[in-house]
Fold this sequence. Notes:
Shape: elongated
Largest sheet: 5 strands, antiparallel
Order of helices and strands: HEEEEEEEEEHHHHHHHH
Distance between the termini: 58 Å
Helix content: 40-55%
Strand content: 15-25%
Radius of gyration: 26 Å
Number of strands: 9
Amino acid sequence: MKNKTTETKLINKMFSITGINNCYESGSNLKHWTHHPPVYDFCDLTAVFGGTATFYSNGKKYNVKEGSLFFRNKDTKFHSEGKSGFKTYTIRFYTGKDDRISFLKKLHHLDNPEYYYKLFREAIKLYDQKSYMYNIKIAAIVYNLIASLVTAGITKDNSNLKYKKIESAVIYLNNNIYNPGLSVENIAQKSDISVKHFRNIFKEIYGLSPIKYITEKRLEKSMELLCYSEYSINEIAGIVGFNSTIYFDRVFKKNFGMTPNEYRESISGN
């Protein structure tokens, strides 16, 4: 319900793009530079694809780097400073008289920057060519960019909320990962949710099932012990949480194409 409310609030805060001011690529070769623009009546979306800089917006400091996207609302005090090698794409656009995009965060760290860079490059190309209805096409790109940023933010918030639900279980799992008696049932109990619900959330966050996660961690530890200890295969199986050497051999070979003993011999041979 909380997440749905958040989305509803954002939908209700629609804004209109009334024009495009400029779209451009920029960079600086100066060893040190500062930029103090006047207060503008348009908005800026700036994607950083090289270097680092410091942005100041209404007295707050933001460290931006490659993979960052910065939003500057209209009528906002702003200045920046940085060094050579700083490169950006920028789209400047006008909104309705009373429209302020207050729901969008100023600084975004992009999980998939190339997707956003592609949209910026397309907008710059349209602006340079000024082909038929280029303003409308660029406005569509801006709507797409902002929708993507908001959606990514909601997804990340949802992931954080879901992790909070299983945080105590994950801590328990990692603290007991080499315990041969560990089970998904007793892990899930630590978060007071059903086993099925725990499995689903865990897989959504980590990309694999709890059992697969446990197995991979145990195999990683076993490889370390095979390389750097003198424990026997049977002892290592017990240390990392496998109930039997036979089962340890089978799982190890399924994942690495050789038995633990064969792996140890291959390391010794090098």
